[in-house]
Amino acid sequence: MQKKENLDCYRKKLPYPSDRKIEKYIKEAEKEWRKIENKILQSLSEITRIKWKEKEVFCYVIGRGVPISDPLTMEIYEKRIDWFIDVMIHELIHRLFCQEDNLKKFYKLGEKYKKDIHTTVHIVLNAIHKEVYLKFFNKKRLLREIKIFSNYPEYKEAWDFVEKNDYKKIIKDFAF
Predict the structure, then answer these.
(1) In 3-state terms, what secondary structure has residue 82?
(2) What is the pLDDT of residue 9?
(3) Are 130 and 167 in contact (CB under 8 A)?
(4) With 90 as the cut, is the pLDDT of residue 75 above it?
(5) Quick one: what percent of the chain has pLDDT higher than 90?
(6) Mean pLDDT throughout 15-19?
(7) Cα–chain center distance at 110
(8) What is the mean pLDDT of residues 62-71?
(9) 32-53 pLDDT tens trace
(10) What's the pLDDT band for 79 if we cut at 50, 70, 90?
(11) Of 140, 142, 145, 130, whose CA–CA distance to 77 is shortest?
C-alpha cells in the first residue's frame, strides 16, 4: 500500500516544536533560501510581468499552522527544508498577485476556464510554480507537489487543469 502524503496528517502527528528547534530550523532554511532567493524572486517577476513593490518581505516562522502570504507566515516542516522553500514560493506568488489589480484578470480567466475565482487563482499560480520547478529544481519535486495537493479537491482541480493544458499559455493569458 502506497503511503498517502497529506499535510493535515503531518501536522496532527507532530508535537509543537520548541523555540530552540524552530530557531535552528530557521537558520537552516534561511541558508538554503539565500542560495536561490534572488534568482527565484527575479524569475517570478519576469514570468508574471509584475515588479516587486516591496524591498523586503518579512517571513514569520511558526512551529505548526497554515502558511499564508500576508503576512508571509510559514510553518516548519522538520527535515524537509526543500518543502518549506516550495511552500514559500507558492505563498510568494500569491503575494506578488496581490501587489497589482489582478482580480479583474482572474475573473476574466475564470470565465474563460469556466472555474471559480479560487480555482482560477491556483491554476495561474500552479502554472507559474511549474515553470519555477522545471527551471530551478526538477520534475520529481514538481510531481511531489502535485501528489501532496491531490488530497485537497480545490487544489487538485487546479493542478489537473495545469497538467492537461499548456502551462506556458496559461501564464501568457494571465501576464498580458
Answers:
(1) helix
(2) 46
(3) yes
(4) yes
(5) 83
(6) 93
(7) 20
(8) 95
(9) 999 999 999 999 999 999 999 9
(10) confident
(11) 145
d(CA 40, CA 32): 12
**Residue 142 carries which side chain, given as an amino acid letter?**
L
Instruction: Report whether 7 contacts 150 (CB < 8 A).
Output: no
CB-CB contact of 71 with 89 (8 Å): no
Q: How many CA atoms lie within 13 A of 159 on its CB side?
A: 18
The reported pLDDT for the residue numbered 103 is 85
Is residue 163 left, alpha or beta, with left meaning phi > 0 and alpha meaning psi from -120 to 50? Answer: alpha
Mean residue pLDDT of the chain comes to 91
Q: What residue spans of the chain are helical by DSSP H?
A: 7-13, 19-48, 81-98, 103-113, 117-136, 139-149, 153-164, 167-174
Q: What are the sequence ranges of the domains in the chain?
A: 7-170
Q: Is 73 in contact with 87 (CB distance < 8 Å)?
A: no
Phi, psi angle pair for 56, to nearest 5°:
-140, 145
Q: Which residues contact 167 (CB under 8 A, 6 or more apart)?
A: 126, 127, 130, 131
- Position 94: which residue type? H
Rounded (5°) CA angle 103-152-155:
30
